[in-house]
Structures are given as C-alpha cells and as structure tokens.
C-alpha cells in the first residue's frame, strides 16, 4: 500500500498528464474512427486503397523528417530545459535538421510513384497527402514533451481534427473523391503545425533563430540510431502496403490497410498518451535516480500491457460486425482483424522495453541495440511477407505483421535484460 501511495505521489503529474492525454487522445482517435468507417463505406475497398497507399508512401517522408527526434530531441530538451541558451540551441538545431530532411525526402518518394507503372494510378492521392510531411517538419511535439507541456500539443492536435475532419462528411461523397479524402486528412498536420508555431512563439521559450552546422550534425547523429530503427520498422508498416500493391488489386490493399488502421487506432488511443507522458519523466530519472526510473518503467509496462489486453479482446468481439456495416466489398475484414488482434499486446511490450528501457533509461550503446533489433527484424519481416503475400495476399500480410511484432517484442525484452547487466554510469551517454 505504501509503495502504491509513493508511486502515485512521485508520478502524480505524469499520471494526471496520462489521464488528460487519454481523454484528448480518445477524442483524437474517436474522430478518425468515426471518419474511417464513413470513408470505408463511401469509397469502397478500391477507393480506400488510394487513401491507404498514399498515407503509407508519405509516411516514408514523415519518417525521414522526424528522424527519431521525437525521442532523442525530447530527451535532450528534458535535460536542458532549465538552461535557456542550451534549449534555444537544441531547438533551432532540430528545426534546421528537419527542414533539410524535408527537402531530401520529397524527391525520394515522388520519383518511384511517377515512374513505377504499378504505382502510377496512386500518384494524385500521394500528391494530395504531401502536406502531412510538411506539417510534420514544423510540429513541435518533441519540444512540448521535453519542457513538460505535452498537454498543449494534445489540445492543438485535437482542435485541428475538430476543425478539419468533419469536412470529410461534407465533401467526400463517392469513390471519385478519394484524393480529396487524402488531402483533408493530411491537412490536419498543416493546421497543427501552424497553430503549434504560434503557441510556441507565445510561450517565448526560446530566443531568436541561431543555426550551427555542428549542432545540427550533433542532433542528427544522436537521432541516427533511432531513425535507422524507425526506417527498419517501416518495412512492416508502410512498406508492407507498398509491396502488397504489387501482388494484389486495389480492393485487397484497401481491406488490409483498413484492418491495420483500425487495429493501430484502437491500440494507440491508450498507448500513445501513456508513453508521451512518461518518456520525459523516465529520461530525467535516468540521470537523477536510475533505480526510480527502472521502477517507473516496470509499473508503466504492467499498466500498458493490461490496457492492450483489453484492446485485443475488444477487437475480437467487434470484428464480426464490421463487414456487414461496411458492405460486401469488405468481406474478410473480420478475418484480418482476428489475425491482428494480438498485435497490440506485442506492440506495447516491444515499445516499452525499447523506448523506455533502451532509450529513456539507456545510453549510446543501448541506443545501438534498439536500432539493431529493427535491423535484424526488417529482413526477416520481408522474408516472411513475400511468400505469405504471394500465397494468401492480404491475409498473408496480416500474419507477417503479427509474427513481426512478436519478434520485435522478444528481441526488445532480451536487449533490455542484457542492458540491466551493465553499469550505465561507466558508459558514455
């Protein structure tokens, strides 16, 4: 009882932030979850394929722009947030790096879309989704998390969705509106970026812009292991969809992207707020009180896994109702959801041991281990996907996704247990 009371006392702000964020995240996810069935029904499986494919492709640009800064920069900001000069230096170095990465990423995704025949039908939808990448460059979630004002960013994101996503019901009326649907969803990121810029300026947390190539290189090199791990992760998130499009018609791609979108939305509605609230806290404890940080991470793990178990059960219970609600073109969607139902549990285990255990509590060595897990898993994921997708199309891809998340969870756990044997104070941070 005393331990529980001390835990609540020591982590009151993070728990309140978590509850606050869960409420806002509920709104954030509820709106897309309301919009998603509407899009699935109005666009049909083939029409939604354009939306799902374009989101998967543009996420590659977002991946490059983010470059792992949401973890590395958040930790750096959390450490220097009381030093205005250092905070200003970190902020503008990260912003400069993200702008350069945006300029690099756009040609990388557009060239294949326009020159690979199988992808050319999706070109218009991809162009309409590009605002997502631009908005990602100028959205400062990493800054708000690091300075302990994550609620502000959550409110901004929620208001953006409230303003823009209802327009989907007004303007998207048929399969021909698939590109417009993609644009409306992507424009949320642009509005979020605009408002977050205004809000950060109003807070006056940083001084005038100052850029240093050396500082940009330092921030980028700090994030490189995280970027490589995210790039590897994209193999079984975005790249699965891109490869599936080579094997299947648009309706099969639409069913797979629909099932994955529903599963991840249900998963992240609870997982994301908890990790956003606790990551800065555990990062700070890694320097101030490492044992306290380990205890906090273990308690967070139990909380997150219990929440994801509930999510998995709900997916199984609700899956049979969806094909009838969405129409005949979605026959088999329930089977895809049955296959993916356990994925949230493994996603949460892998993420807590990785992001909290190896990154927030870790050092340069454990960051490399975090990266190496994904570098090992990625080729294995592709090796599973290619034969499974060729044999069973979208159902094979769903099995490959589940097996991949299981493997990530096992390897992250193994890496964290190995890290516990190290004396972190003797290793470079």
Polypeptide structure, described:
With 429 residues, the protein is mainly alpha-helical. 84% of the residues lie in helices and 0% in strands. The chain has 18 helices and no strands. It has helices at 2-10, 12-66, 69-80, 84-115, 123-129, 131-137, 141-146, 150-164, 167-171, 178-203, 213-233, 238-247, 250-288, 290-318, 322-326, 333-340, 343-360, 364-419. The radius of gyration is 21 Å and the shape is globular. The relative contact order is 0.13.
The rounded distance between the terminal residues' Cα atoms is: 35 Å
H/E series: HHHHHHHHHHHHHHHHHH
Oligomeric assembly: single chain
Helix content: over 70%
Q: How many strands, which pairing sense, and closed or not: the largest β-sheet? A: none
Strand content: under 5%
Gyration radius, in Å: 21 Å
Would you kindly provide a brief summary of this structure?
This protein has 429 residues and is an all-alpha fold. The protein is built from 18 helices and no strands.
Q: Tags for this entry?
A:
429 residues; mainly alpha; 18 helices
Task: Please describe the topology of this protein.
Layout lengths: L1 H9 L1 H55 L2 H12 L3 H32 L7 H7 L1 H7 L3 H6 L3 H15 L2 H5 L6 H26 L9 H21 L4 H10 L2 H39 L1 H29 L3 H5 L6 H8 L2 H18 L3 H56 L10
């Amino acid at each position: 009882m005393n331990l529980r009371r001390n835990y609540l006392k020591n982590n009151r702000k993070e728990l309140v932030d978590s509850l606050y964020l869960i409420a806002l995240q509920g709104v954030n996810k509820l709106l897309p979850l309301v919009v998603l069935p509407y899009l699935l029904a109005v666009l049909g499986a083939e029409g939604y394929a354009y939306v799902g494919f374009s989101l998967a492709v543009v996420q590659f640009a977002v991946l490059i722009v983010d470059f792992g800064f949401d973890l590395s920069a958040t930790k750096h900001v959390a450490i220097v947030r009381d030093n205005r000069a250092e905070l200003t230096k970190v902020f503008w170095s990260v912003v400069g790096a993200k702008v350069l990465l945006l300029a690099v990423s756009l040609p990388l995704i557009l060239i294949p879309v326009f020159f690979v025949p199988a992808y050319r039908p999706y070109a218009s939808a991809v162009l309409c989704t590009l605002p997502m990448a631009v908005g990602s460059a100028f959205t400062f979630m990493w800054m708000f998390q690091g300075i302990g004002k994550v609620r502000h960013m959550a409110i901004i994101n929620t208001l953006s969705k409230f303003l823009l996503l209802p327009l989907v019901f007004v303007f998207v009326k048929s399969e021909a509106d698939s590109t417009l649907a993609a644009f409306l969803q992507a424009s949320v990121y642009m509005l979020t970026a605009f408002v977050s810029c205004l809000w950060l300026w109003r807070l006056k947390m940083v001084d005038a812009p100052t850029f240093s190539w050396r500082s940009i290189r330092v921030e980028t090199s700090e994030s490189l292991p995280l970027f490589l791990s995210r790039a590897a992760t994209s193999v079984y998130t975005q790249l699965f969809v891109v490869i599936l499009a080579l094997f299947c018609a648009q309706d099969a791609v639409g069913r797979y992207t629909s099932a994955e979108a529903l599963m991840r939305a249900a998963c992240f509605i609870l997982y994301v707020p908890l990790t956003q609230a606790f990551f800065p806290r555990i990062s700070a404890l890694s320097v101030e009180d490492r044992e306290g940080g380990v205890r906090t991470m273990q308690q967070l793990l139990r909380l997150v896994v219990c929440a994801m178990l509930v999510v998995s059960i709900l997916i199984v219970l609700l899956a049979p109702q969806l094909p009838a609600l969405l129409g005949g073109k979605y026959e088999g969607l329930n089977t895809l959801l049955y296959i993916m139902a356990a994925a949230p549990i493994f996603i949460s285990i892998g993420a807590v041991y990785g992001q909290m255990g190896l990154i927030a509590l870790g050092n340069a060595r454990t960051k490399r281990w975090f990266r190496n897990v994904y570098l090992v898993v990625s080729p294995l994921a592709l090796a599973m996907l290619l034969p499974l997708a060729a044999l069973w199309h979208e159902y094979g891809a769903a099995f490959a996704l589940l097996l991949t998340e299981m493997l990530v969870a096992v390897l992250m756990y193994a890496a964290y247990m190995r890290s516990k044997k190290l004396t972190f104070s003797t290793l470079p941070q």
